[in-house]
Write a structure and sequence with these properties.
By secondary structure, the protein is mostly helical. It has one domain (6-93). It has helices at 6-17, 24-45, 57-62, 75-93. The longest helix is centred in the middle third of the chain and has 22 residues, at 24-45. The two termini are 15 Å apart.
Length: 94
């Protein structure tokens, strides 16, 4: 997966926010896997993956509906953001 920006984090969190809480972990795993797959495809072919984009988490997330936070400090959004951060930290520590 390409380097992660704040925009990537926000887009992924908004995808999770649009889902019921019990589906978020699986959806996040799928987003990360799709970004990885797309980045491998980009390295191999020099082109973006036709379904998953250019290897960024943002491109993978934009293929799915997202939800806007209810407002500043929306606890559900912040929880989704934390979930994305934790998954990325875990993936980079293995």
């Amino acid at each position: 997966m390409r380097p992660v920006t704040l925009t990537d984090l926000s887009a992924a969190a908004r995808v999770l926010l649009a889902l019921p809480e019990d589906r978020r972990a699986a959806a996040l795993g799928a987003l990360l896997a799709r970004a990885e797959c797309a980045d491998r495809h980009r390295h191999a072919t020099g082109q973006a993956h036709p379904a998953y984009g250019n290897g960024t988490l943002l491109a993978a997330a934009l293929a799915h509906p997202g939800a806007d936070p209810a407002g500043p400090g929306d606890r559900a959004y912040l929880s989704c953001l934390a979930q994305v951060l934790e998954a990325l930290l875990h993936a980079n520590s293995v």
